[in-house]
Design a protein that fits this description.
about 45% helix; globular; homodimer; DNA-binding; four-stranded antiparallel sheet; 11 strands
Chain lengths: ~250, ~250
DNA sequence: CGAGCAATTGAACGCTGTCAACCCGAGTGG
DNA sequence: CCACTCGGGTTGACAGCGTTCAATTGCTCG
């Protein structure tokens, strides 16, 4: 079920797949490994409840987590998806305003928050890395705010499809020219909660894109992106424009 | 025009009003002051253009800045407002994806980015503070994503009004029990761009809330919050629920 | 076989974006 | 003093996208 399954099972985060460790010096890595703990979660399990004090921070090794907020009436909004390589958790004692749950089966590399923070003084590079991660997440959040506020459901859908494709490319370079097939690792309900709409609208958007030959529905969770240029035009937030240019240069070259 | 005007004019950021410096040790503060530079901006001036490399970081001393993104078709979305005390700028060399402009006249305490970063090794507490600021901003962004995705325009409006009230309270404690009057420091156009809607819808929402006696319009930029409980019920994202409870306990006590 | 869930499709209502007109105060120049 | 312009704010009419309610299908699981 993993959208981005790793080639070999991991036993710790020293793998090159682990973006947190791979950019650190040897001693820092060793210390991190010492306090790390690999944990497995089933789909639907709660890693952190809303309004709970963050006691762990960590990194996704495989699977997908959703960061979500719940409204009074039970509606849920997903404010971010955590894919393999992404860091999660706050490095401060303040309580969280988001819940983190496993959207699929997931393997995480976890650290006790306080032990993790204690390493900051000894290895400032870890804090640098953390600051970079949070900054990146903020950028992504602001990008998504733009989408939620200004784009139609179909446009958001197209943007999400292109995002999934971009995510899957780095691990899939040999198939760069092959048929671009993406796997959506979450159910329609989560998709709706992420795109800020309803299950029904998600279905209609998907079917509409299929009717317009932008995509081909292989099964409810796998789609072939038939007309990537068309999708990019649909999406064309400035971020996606860059993708479009890259796509054209690949075609031309 | 400042929503939160400071009691006395500031000449540097050593003031207690400066949240960045006030939490730091004396030597760190001294160093920061040494490299700081106070700058004034008129309403509408650009502090940082989109896709430009961040060369300064700093803090808002007075006035309001808007962080905004521009779409291909010229529409603009505000992804965050920076109020007095807020930090701005990325501490990395990567180019920005947002533009920062002065929404009102503003006074900023600026640092050259590289000089600022250079202090990290000597004073890790500055980096701590920066990490805290970015984390806080991320929280705010996720809160706002929830609003943009799930609430109606009127609900977002109500949430924004309550947010402004909360912001103004700390500096206005003696008037806690007085008539809650808020001052909206930005024009309707910015309001619409922040709430993810249009100028027309903003007007309609405001007039509707006035008709329902939730607010009273003093002038286009000042409102009396007549029925705070009603506004909180309208807004009731979980964050506002806390406000509601606090309000009730004040009333009961 | 029935229960339950995910996904899909249909129909109707309503919020909100669009287009348009209007008000109003500030500035400007005759 | 008036006419004019300009920008910000407000209001109205209307169409369209998307939510809501409802029903159906297909699948898994006990």
């Amino acid at each position: 079920m993993d959208a981005v399954s790793l080639p070999t099972p991991l036993t710790n985060c020293l793998s090159t797949q682990c973006s947190l460790c791979s950019t650190l010096s040897e001693p820092a890595r060793a210390e991190l490994t010492r306090i790390s703990r690999i944990r497995n979660f089933d789909a639907g399990e709660t890693i952190l409840a809303e309004a709970e004090t963050f006691e762990i921070v960590g990194q996704v090794l495989s699977g997908v987590l959703r960061m979500q907020k719940t409204l009074f009436d039970g509606r849920q909004q997903i404010v971010g998806l955590l894919m393999p390589g992404d860091l999660f958790g706050h490095v401060f004692a303040r309580t969280s305003h988001v819940a983190i749950e496993a959207a699929t089966e997931a393997v995480l590399c976890c650290y006790h928050r306080q032990s993790f923070e204690a390493l900051f003084t000894q290895f400032p590079e870890i804090e640098h890395r953390m600051l970079a991660a949070v900054t990146e997440e903020l950028d992504a959040a602001q990008d998504w705010m733009l989408l939620l506020a200004t784009q139609t459901v179909t446009q958001r859908m197209a943007t999400f499809f292109l995002y999934l494709r971009r995510k899957s490319l780095p691990l899939d370079v040999p198939h760069l020219m092959g048929p671009p097939v993406i796997e959506v690792p979450i159910c329609r309900k989560d998709l709706a909660a992420y795109l800020g709409t309803t299950v029904e609208s998600v279905c209609r958007s998907i079917q509409q894109m299929a009717r317009e030959h932008l995509i081909r529905i292989l099964d409810p969770h796998r789609f072939e992106l038939v007309d990537i240029e068309g999708l990019a035009l649909l999406s064309h937030a400035d971020e996606e424009f860059r993708d479009l240019k890259a796509y054209r240069s690949i075609r031309a070259g």
